[in-house]
Amino acid sequence: MKPFYLLLIPCFLLFYNCKNPSEKSSTAKVSVSFSEGLADQGIDGRLLLMFSNDDKKEPRFQINDGLNSQLIFGINVDGMAAGQEVLFDDRVFGHPLNSISEIKQGEYYVQALLHVYETFDLATGHTVKLPMDNGEGQKWNQSPGNIYSKPIKINIGKNGLQDLSLVMDQVIPEIKAPEDTEWIKHIRFKSEKLSAFWGRDMYLGAHILLPKGFDEHPEAKYPLMIFHGHFPSDFGGFRTTPPDEDLEPDYSSRFKVEGYNIIQQQEAYDFYKRWNEPDFPRFLIIEIQHPTPYYDDSYAVNSASQGPYGDAITHELIPYIESRFRGLGEGWSRFLYGGSTGGWEALAVQVKYPDQYNGCFAACPDPIDFRSYCLTNIYEDENAYYYDSDYKKIEVPSHRDYLGQVTSTVKQSNHLELVLGDKSRSGQQWDIWEATYSPMGKDGYPQRIWDKYTGEIDHNVAAYWKENYDLRHIMERDWEKLGPKLKGKIHIYCGDMDNYYLNNAVYRMEDFLENTSDPYYDGEIDYGDRAEHCWNGDQENPNHISRLRYNTMYVPKIMKRIMASAPENADLTSWRYK
């Protein structure tokens, strides 16, 4: 029998709260339209209405999953034409408040934005509408081509919100691509595999950091370090000049550090100096751009709803880069590293392509055992939003600090995503896991792992996740075959107070790896005491420093691995200029 609260499912799960749709709205309506000349034809997309009581930024830049989030409401539009009015009333679902009728008295800034969808005719025969990345890394509030209104100031009195009209007359401009420098090169590469899946030309990108002496040593071929992570606008953390003298120090609220912008510039300059030292090994380092219509990053694996990104990256993009920039082009000479999303990718790619890479360094990885999908066991739990109890109704947390203070819950995080977009189209964290791991539904969109409104888990979908993307399960299931290929290649690091409870899955992975002896994995798993998200194995420096040193901190371990595992007659000298 279902718990009582599951019987109280609202009538309009996706967009409305519990109100009879024929009942007249008890509040004012907000009408939204866009100006003539902004589009040649009707636009599909997600129309978002935002309210903020903070004038420091536009409302579109104040929507988040934390305690300081402002208000947002969302509905789908199909073929919205210039001048057409779309109405928001108290039935439209919102976050953190469910309805505009709940907005308190006060002064607000109001803004509307249309997140534009494009139509894709997939190789599967499905037609879907999704937001194409336009060079921004799937950020709905910054995506070129999206239409928005300038914020207007209103006052909500004791009689509530009054009728209001907003006209969207602004278009987010295109983003200028970064230019090549002496050290950093940029490529944009058409993937035949992805283009075939999506039914249109699809591109991958990369930023390549060249080693010192690249032009002076045309005989040299280089090992490859692949830094996985979220969409990089350019190669980060590399600077050829000291920090700007006139740079105004800022404050990092995340790390509680004054002048963090100066620290970042200094670390980037220090990396440049280290990169040029005579004893530093000469590598190619790449950061990959592989946004999808679902997120800023594909998770670097093949999936039902996103297509063959794993094969496209491993078998198309990387060989192209190695050919163009003189990579060694062999599995023993390629290494993976990254944190969070990049941490999961580093481990997943190593597991799924064990012969193509020679080691992964996975920091604070997204859940690598779905029995600890953050705080949810998707195989045994019935609901992702509430703990099981006959008499209590306690929400499952989704974010904490190192002292355990909770700032959001799984329900709140998912409801924000539901406002930003249905059918896994929010472009946010829970939805991209779904878009990556789930089978494709009959409508061409990813199947839900749980009901987005109620949190009720679909265990059939969970079973699919287990067999295809639960990395601990896959490794345990296939260890007889994978073990010899992965021996010495797995390195995992996580803070024991990770903000998203990701350390729980690492514990489970450690239990398997450390208790499996045929063969023993012969790698490394380490934890940071009271360390939060993005801890990457540095036991000597605080997180705000170590997170800026990914490109150098694993090099000694990579060199040790190369010397121990390179095949006979492998080139161990040309790239060291010997």
CATH class wording of the largest domain: Alpha Beta
As for the CATH topology of the largest domain, it is: Rossmann fold
Radius of gyration: 25 Å
Main β sheet profile: 8 strands, antiparallel
Helical element count?
13
Mean pLDDT: 94
Shape: globular
Oligomer description: single chain
Q: Structural class of the helix and strand makeup?
A: alpha+beta
SS elements, strand count: 25
* Measured distance between first and last alpha carbons: 72 Å
Helix content: 10-25%
Beta-strand proportion = 15-25%
- Count of structural domains: 3
What is the CATH architecture annotation of the largest domain? 3-Layer(aba) Sandwich
Assign the CATH superfamily of the largest domain: Alpha/Beta hydrolase fold, catalytic domain
